[in-house]
Amino acid sequence: MRIVGEATGRPARWEELPREDARRRMLDSGRPSAIVDGALDHLAARIADPERAGTAVEDVTGAPARSPRSRAADHAGLLR
User: Fold this and answer.
1) Where are the domains of the chain?
2) Burial environment of residue 36 by CB neighbours within 10 A (0 to 12, 13 to 18, 19 or more)
3) CA-to-CA distance for 79 and 43, rounded, in angstroms?
């Protein structure tokens, strides 16, 4: 989030919710409980065991993936 804040010239922060708070918000928005629980389980698994970055961007475009800083700078107007 620091990178987004730097690119936009505005403060940006990440606020993590406890799982039950996130679950309640998702359920309150009308999402089915099976979808909510599956999504939260998937996110927890990715945090516990992150996937390694792949080569898909370069494979498709022929150019290496850009850095988060580069993407934030290029899209700062959309992020404001």
Assistant:
1) 2-50+67-79
2) middle
3) 23
Distance from C-alpha of 76 to C-alpha of 80, rounded to nearest angstrom: 6
Task: Specify the pLDDT at position 1.
Answer: 86
Residue-level pLDDT at 79: 85
State how far the alpha carbon of 12 is from the alpha carbons of 1, 21, 67, 73, 74, in Å: 6, 21, 18, 14, 17
3-state SS string for 15-46: CCCCHHHHHHHHHHCCCCHHHHHHHHHHHHHH
The pLDDT averaged over each successive group of 10 residues in the chain (80 residues) is 92 92 98 98 96 93 93 90
